[in-house]
Design goal:
Belongs to the PI3/PI4-kinase family. Type II PI4K subfamily. Keywords: ATP-binding, Kinase, Nucleotide-binding, Transferase. The chain is α+β, with helices and mostly antiparallel strands. It has helices at 51-54, 94-108, 173-182, 249-262, 317-325, 328-337, 344-362, 367-374, 384-395, 402-421, and strands at 2-6, 26-33, 36-43, 72-73, 80-84, 114-115, 124-127, 134-140, 206-211, 225-231, 272-277, 282-287. The strands form three sheets. A seven-stranded antiparallel β-sheet has the order 4-5-9-10-8-7-6, sandwiched between helices. Helix 9 crosses helix 10 (402-421). The radius of gyration is 24 Å and the shape is globular. The termini are far apart.
Length: 422
């Protein structure tokens, strides 16, 4: 630890500047005493690393990750590494490889993570090797709202506590960020880490990683963290800073499809970035922050775009063809291959939301109408979709299998949609 006290006496030049070159990751504290300044610099505690910190052995602590634990990690002592549970899966896309490589080079060259001042969880801007560019965003699972190391004091009384949104759990947001990317299929293709194509909705490339740095929030010992790493997208700000009238209809519709299908419980204007296609001269909307997708219930679903004029326009033939190609069972199988065996309630959410999107689109309903069926009008009044599920649950025996239950949901949904369509 380095301790320095700078005095404000006349012996010290008023505008004196002292430069420190610190070769290792460290934390610093400053404290003012009238004209004096105390600076303390402390490096990350060097202790004998356990194999589950950066080695290749499996950790026994599920709370370290929240949802997914790696079965096998890359056997090196790097600051950043890709994480997968499937031993058959070896290669990821070149885009993700490049993102991880640039982020790792930044850490190696002492480019410290920069914590975002926005949001309720820990999110860090990761720099490239020269420090002149942000290349990715890292969100540690243990720093999510209600998780044990949340940097804003939003810490629950116990692990596995419900997240800020109904039907979610603290620590599961990181894997949901990856899920949103995996299920954002490109047109005429199925998403995979090997598929380089941009998804229909444009979710930035996202991967689960393990990262070690003293700049993260470590109330106690400094250790590696699991979390999501998402490619940084150059932007002009978020939709909070611009009215929706200038947004192309397709850009709004693509996000509506993602949010309805994923039953997004946290879509607001602040997590839709505005970029631009310079060739076409049009704005491009980039959806981010998907930590509250696929909740166990539909209670907190909310879509900012529901109130935009584009949402009241019909889907185009190309968009309808994309919706028709979606398959919830294929999606569940894809997630299982990449390490997330979707919990039963979350799987039901995906099946029901995909069913609603496809049936509604087939009947010519607009994003506004379909979204209004999923979202509540008020906090205490269930949505139409919640009413459909409640009726279906009352029409079958509790021990009935999922297929029979979904058949009941489908019949009731057809009836309710016919009433809406009149």
């Amino acid at each position: 630890m380095l301790y320095i006290a700078a005095s404000g006496s006349s012996a010290v030049p008023k505008n004196a500047i002292i430069h420190f070159i610190i070769q290792k990751s460290a934390k610093d504290w400053t404290k003012s005493f009238e004209k004096d300044l105390e600076l303390r610099i402390e490096g990350c505690k060097e202790k004998k690393r356990k194999r589950d910190d950066l080695g290749s052995e499996k950790s026994n602590k599920k709370e370290d990750v929240g949802v997914v634990l790696p079965e096998k990690l890359v056997q090196n002592d790097s600051l950043l590494e890709f994480v997968t549970r499937n031993p058959q899966f070896i290669y990821q896309s070149h885009i993700i490889e490049d993102m991880i490589r640039q982020t790792s080079e930044g850490l190696t060259n002492l480019r410290c993570p920069i914590r975002s001042s926005e949001g309720t969880g820990g999110a860090y801007f990761m720099q490239n090797s020269t420090g002149d560019k942000i290349v990715s965003i890292f969100k540690p699972a243990d720093e999510e709202p209600n998780a044990e190391n949340n940097p804003h004091g939003l810490v629950a009384s116990s692990n596995g506590e419900e997240g800020l949104k109904k039907g979610t759990k603290a620590g599961e947001g990181a894997i949901r960020e990856v899920v949103a990317y995996l299920l954002d299929h490109p047109i005429n293709k199925r998403r995979s880490f090997k598929n380089e194509g941009t998804g229909f909705a444009g979710v930035p490339p996202t991967s689960m990683v393990k990262c070690l740095h003293a700049g993260f929030n470590h109330p106690e010992e400094c250790k590696a963290k699991f979390g999501s790493l998402q490619k940084f997208v150059e932007n002009y700000g978020s939709c909070e800073e611009m009215g929706p009238c200038n947004f192309p209809v397709h850009e709004v519709h693509k996000i509506s499809i993602l949010d309805i299908r994923m039953a997004n419980a946290d879509r607001h204007a602040g997590n839709i970035l505005i970029s631009k296609d310079e060739e076409k001269g049009q704005y491009v909307l980039v959806p981010i922050d998907h930590g509250y997708c696929l909740p166990e219930s539909f209670e907190d679903c909310t879509f900012e775009w529901l109130y935009w004029p584009q949402a009241r326009q019909s889907y185009s033939p190309e968009t309808l063809a994309y919706i028709k190609s979606l398959d919830a069972e294929e999606d569940i199988a894809t997630l299982k291959f990449y390490g997330w065996d979707l919990p039963q309630k979350c799987a039901r959410t995906l099946r029901v939301s995909t069913m609603l999107l496809k049936k509604g689109a087939e009947q010519g309903l607009t994003p506004y109408t379909i979204g209004s069926i999923m979202c509540r009008d008020s906090l205490n009044k269930p949505s139409i979709l919640e009413e459909i599920l409640h009726e279906a649950q009352g029409s079958v025996l509790p021990s009935i299998n999922e297929t029979t239950f979904l058949d009941s949901v489908s019949r009731i949904m057809d009836r309710r949609l016919a009433q809406v369509h009149k």
